[in-house]
Sequence to fold (378 residues):
Amino acid sequence: MDFEPSPIQRERCAEISAAVLERFAEHETSTDPEQVRLAWKDAAAAGLTGLCVSQEYGGAGLRALDTALALEAFGRSCTDMGLVFGVAAHLLSCAVPVQDFGTAAAKELLAGMAAGDVVAGNAMTEDEAGSDIGRIRSTATLTDEGYVLHGEKSFVSNGPISDVFVTYAVTDPTAGFLGVSAFAVPRELDGVVVGEPLRKMGLDGCLAARVRFEGCVVPAEYLLGSEGGGGAIFQHSMAWERGVLFAGYLGQMARQLAECVDHANNRRQFGQKIGGFQAVSHKIARMRQRLESARLMLYRACWLLDQGRTDVVAIAMAKTAVSEAAIANSLDAMQLFGSMGYLVDAGIEGQLRDSLPTTIFSGTTEIQMELIARGTGL
Ligand SMILES: Cc1cc2nc3c(=O)[nH]c(=O)nc-3n(C[C@H](O)[C@H](O)[C@H](O)COP(=O)(O)OP(=O)(O)OC[C@H]3O[C@@H](n4cnc5c(N)ncnc54)[C@H](O)[C@@H]3O)c2cc1C
Fold:
């Protein structure tokens, strides 16, 4: 068992941190789609939009653990967690299934995705199908021209700026799990209607929208895998998203911890630094312990993925550990900063708002507990 990152991993992370700091030191999170696209260009220039895309398509060809380390470095050095989340979702729930299941024609999208010119959004959730994705009602019917898609997806991260959607629709209503198929749908196709950006609590730098398919004809070559394979493809992409995406939050937690230590060492009350009060120092100790235990679980889940062992329980435990730690640490950071933490400019309240959805997206904590319980013999 070796817990040391290799020299290559260290060097890569240092390079990413330097590249991110260079481009994002003055960056201000924006909800203007044009500004968000510009931020993607900077992320692309730092090599982040193609981390796990094969080198054949201009990506870095990283596997799960190395992608996680890179996303952690991104989250450590960039305060725009919406951007970190959006880039990670583009990679893990979109590039991964296109790369692993796409036809040659679908894989042609990958070069643009790696370069950050083609932004991708994952479109699974529907109004009546959140945790229960078996209830999706979008349909895809094969005709001579291709698959005709009808349906509406309710929460698509990156949606307003996406050039392609990875989506799922029912091709055989009698076949249950085996009746769902996956598609890559270029936005330019007729019948793709993207709604206005949704108003959200946080992750401002990642715009989200509803996406409707109104008789959109998708060429058959954009079917991912085989007809009926969509359920398994979604599970594969979720293993990558749940296992790897949350590394960005490890980065946020590390940055936040450093800010809290600095504040506790410099803020003085009752004639001494507040870090001298045990109630404050133990809060910081607890934050570090949560960060490091979540980090170990995430690294292990990613390592298992790289061994070809998709361990659903390890991934669910890591996802839960990171998301709950991100929220608990953000609440502690707010308390530690006092009234300053409540003001927008200090950035601390934003960390809390960006952390709160982590126990919802990529499968809620309650669903992760179900997976863990089932894998534990219940
Ligand atoms: C920031 C953010 C980004 C997102 N991005 C995307 C995206 O890019 N693409 C996409 O397709 N979707 C996206 N989603 C949607 C996300 O996948 C869903 O919100 C999530 O799957 C939960 O579905 P729901 O919101 O409908 O909640 P529901 O499924 O309605 O759940 C409501 C509550 O009931 C609980 N519950 C439900 N079923 C069970 C059960 N069997 N046992 C115990 N408890 C249960 C849940 O845990 C939850 O607490 C995003 C969501 C957020 C918040």
